[in-house]
Design goal:
elongated; mainly alpha
């Protein structure tokens, strides 16, 4: 199963060109949905104005080379390794889901366009299956055991709201993909056709619901993280106090007289209990 191209056998009943057009349409939906989200929420205007205010209020100039360096640090820390997640389980689940989805989608494009009717397609079928499994492991782990409203607030793991549309459609898409490939490798039949249809429907829901899901946040999060680094570098720090309470200027800004001279390790007793949130 893991070494066979799942799209090769189905090409006998569904033209390869039709599957290729489906992939193209999904890409168009991603671009159009993200652009709609940017215009509707005015995200680009927000980041532009926020950067302008930070630049004008900054106490020191950030050079172009420093911005490039901060962008690289953001890409490595916040994007590639998801360092913003303090809880290790949440971070691992996120990385499994993120890299699994990227690998699965990349392998899908290669198999559909590069090997539309070839059962043996090198390492790409293995990557397609492993990517889907990564999404399922990370996604189900997050959904049933890590979600805040389940782990910390005691809500039912089967409670569904619009904010869950992205994770649910993504996990369903990869789950149906694995079941379809498994049944097709076992001989196909009506059940395999059913799961193929469910796979295509869930994938359409994943990419077609972008304006109403959390999908665009994968583009906004790096921008917000870069803006935060630049604001710290130019001295504005988003108008928030820094971590160093031994700085006399920061001590003056603190609203509570009691905490102006407090030691840096004050209040860390809360870390005796492992957090069950983000």
């Amino acid at each position: 199963m893991f070494s066979q191209n799942p799209f090769a056998e189905v090409s006998a009943s569904i033209p390869s060109a039709l599957l290729q057009w489906f992939v193209v349409i999904m890409v168009v939906l991603v671009v159009a949905g993200t652009m709609f989200d940017v215009v509707h929420k005015k995200s680009a205007r927000y980041f532009s104005e926020s950067m302008r205010r930070s630049r004008e209020a900054g106490t020191k100039q950030v050079s172009g080379g420093e911005v490039v360096s901060l962008a690289i640090q953001t890409a490595v820390s916040e994007v590639l390794t998801s360092s913003e997640f303090c809880h290790p389980n949440r971070r691992i689940a996120h990385l499994l889901t993120m890299y699994g989805l990227v690998i699965h989608l990349l392998a899908t494009a290669v198999l559909v366009f590069g090997y539309p009717a070839m059962a043996n397609a090198g390492i790409w079928p293995l990557l397609w299956h492993l990517g889907a499994l990564g999404v399922c492991v990370g996604g189900y782990w997050f959904w049933f055991f890590i979600r805040v409203d389940v782990a910390a607030e005691g809500n039912s793991p089967f409670r569904f709201v619009r904010a869950d549309l992205f994770i649910v459609s993504m996990v369903l898409s990869t789950t149906f993909a694995i079941l379809w490939a498994l049944l097709q490798g076992a001989g196909g039949g009506a059940l395999a056709t059913l799961f193929l249809a469910l796979y295509l429907i869930a994938t359409t829901m994943l990419f077609g619901s972008i304006p109403w899901s959390k999908f665009p946040h994968m583009f906004f999060k790096p921008a917000a993280a870069l803006e935060k680094r630049i604001s710290k570098a130019n001295g504005t720090a988003e108008n928030l106090p820094t971590q160093t309470r031994d700085d006399p200027e920061q001590q003056k800004r603190h609203s509570m007289e009691l905490l102006r001279d407090a030691p840096m390790n004050m209040g860390l007793g809360i870390k005796r209990e492992a957090p069950r949130h983000y």
